[in-house]
């Protein structure tokens, strides 16, 4: 009925693809600015604890289901539930997950399009195309639609090529480039005057803020978003992993990479903000709050680069290339979730599925672009604040209560024979059944109050 299933050709291929999914705008923009506005080092600490306590176990649940079922999220959950009711429930959760993946992509592609435009600006400047430079710097509807469309088309083109030649090949090329650009930028920015003030704001903890439930919630939301949880992307990547690779090790490696890059990005973003302040650029808003949102990326940093003359143009190329690469390796994973459902459950071929789903997503992005003030924030909060944690709970419950214990243990043992002596083995199966869903629920209830 369908094309043969793809598979990652190596551990590194999986690691680059899964950490490519995890490392995105959420790490390079979201994490550092949330940390700076929420108690600095205290947020970093809360994030570390929550990432290991909640997000890593939930990531493991997705990888275990995916590799066990070797299928997309809908088919996988349908297979796990053996009775009609649990099967139906499984399919419903699966469809909801991929719908959310598509919706996340629809707003993510808008922001990623802006990054492409900002990348194009200094490039146009270097080539001497001042008309294009000006147009890209504007905020017209056509410009926003065009850059979003181009970004979505890149995403679709990679997914249309399949698991090994598309996802794996591109992630293994782009992720090392991302590390190199990030490190290069940090080294440059850290030696500029003002940088140490940024490091202080980022790292010195204000522990009073730990008592604020809002802080824990933001840290949890950030961890779920950052590890791409709940929407079937990690599940489908897990399903392409070979049986002789150890899931707990792979999951831990992805979590560690994700956290390290988020942390490292803070060493760039906060110092850059304070270097900007040192040069007289405003980094606080009217109410004394740190300009952490679009104002930071699209005003503060571009003004800083503009102040730096020739070097600034290259810095700007490097920074927005970094942002675009981070966004692209994440967006391909978002698209793979619905595409895998369609190719494995209908007769449609991969490239047909990728282009048609991409087109639908682009239409949704266009609707959001045309109604930015009402639809953008609503889509972000519906998908990331509400749906991702709820879906995370559902997937933990599927692994904990519906999957047979021996299936689960076999999946953990595959590629990891000595796991029976580890703490993970003793704790995780119980933890994912009861504690993890309860903790996510508790944190979630705080949002509703
Ligand atoms: N993890 C990505 C980031 O931090 O930017 C965002 C993301 C990717 C969310 C894939 C959801 C997803 F399925």
UniProtKB/TrEMBL annotation:
Entry annotated with the keyword DNA-binding: no
Chief localization: membrane
Domain of life, source organism: Bacteria
Membrane topology per record: Multi-pass membrane protein
Subcellular location: Membrane
Chain ranges passing through the membrane: 12-31, 43-65, 93-116, 141-163, 175-195, 215-238, 250-274, 311-332, 353-374, 386-403, 423-445
Keywords (A to Z) from UniProt: Membrane, Transmembrane, Transmembrane helix, Transport
InterPro entries on file: Na/ntran_symport (IPR000175), SNS_sf (IPR037272), YocR/YhdH-like (IPR047218)
Source organism of the structure: Marinimicrobium koreense
PANTHER family per UniProt: TRANSPORTER
Entry protein name: NSS family neurotransmitter:Na+ symporter
A GO cellular-component term linked to this record: membrane
């Amino acid at each position: 009925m369908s094309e043969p299933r793809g598979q990652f050709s190596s551990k590194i291929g999986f690691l680059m693809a899964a950490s490519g999914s995890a490392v995105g705008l959420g790490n390079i923009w979201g994490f550092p600015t949330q940390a700076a506005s929420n108690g600095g080092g205290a947020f970093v600490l809360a994030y570390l604890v929550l990432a290991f306590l909640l997000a890593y176990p939930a990531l493991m649940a997705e990888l275990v289901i995916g590799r066990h079922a070797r299928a997309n999220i809908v088919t996988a959950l349908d297979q796990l539930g053996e009775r009609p009711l649990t099967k139906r429930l499984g399919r419903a959760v699966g469809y909801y997950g991929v719908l959310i993946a598509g919706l996340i992509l629809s707003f993510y592609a808008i922001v990623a399009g802006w990054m492409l435009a900002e990348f194009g600006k200094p490039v146009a400047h270097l080539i001497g195309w001042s008309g294009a430079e000006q147009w890209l710097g504007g905020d017209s509807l056509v410009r926003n639609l065009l850059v979003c469309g181009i970004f979505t088309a890149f995403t679709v083109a990679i997914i249309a090529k399949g698991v090994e030649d598309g996802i794996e090949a591109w992630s293994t090329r782009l992720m090392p480039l991302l590390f190199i650009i990030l490190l290069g930028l940090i080294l440059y920015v850290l030696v500029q005057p003002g940088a140490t003030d940024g490091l202080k704001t980022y790292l010195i903890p204000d522990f009073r803020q730990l008592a604020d439930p809002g802080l824990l919630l933001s840290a949890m939301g950030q961890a779920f978003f950052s590890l791409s949880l709940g929407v079937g992307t990690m599940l489908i990547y897990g399903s392409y992993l070979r049986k002789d690779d150890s899931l707990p090790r792979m999951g831990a490696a992805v979590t560690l990479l994700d956290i390290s890059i988020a942390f490292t990005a803070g060493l760039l973003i906060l110092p850059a903000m304070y270097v900007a302040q040192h040069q007289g650029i405003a980094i606080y808003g009217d109410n004394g709050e740190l300009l952490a949102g679009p104002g930071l990326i699209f005003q503060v940093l571009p003004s800083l680069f503009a102040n730096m003359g020739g070097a600034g143009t290259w810095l700007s190329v490097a920074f927005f290339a970094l942002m675009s690469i981070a966004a692209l390796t994440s967006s391909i994973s978002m698209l793979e979730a619905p595409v895998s459902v369609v190719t494995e459950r209908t007769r449609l071929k991969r490239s047909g599925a990728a282009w048609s789903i991409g087109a639908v997503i682009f239409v949704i992005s266009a609707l959001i672009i045309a109604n930015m003030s009402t639809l953008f924030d609503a889509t972000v909060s519906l998908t990331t604040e509400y749906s991702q944690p709820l879906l995370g709970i559902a997937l933990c419950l599927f692994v904990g209560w519906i999957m047979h214990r021996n299936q689960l243990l076999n999946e953990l043992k595959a590629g990891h024979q000595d796991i029976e002596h580890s703490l993970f083995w003793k704790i995780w199966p119980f933890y994912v059944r009861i504690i993890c869903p309860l903790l996510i629920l508790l944190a979630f209830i705080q949002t509703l109050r």
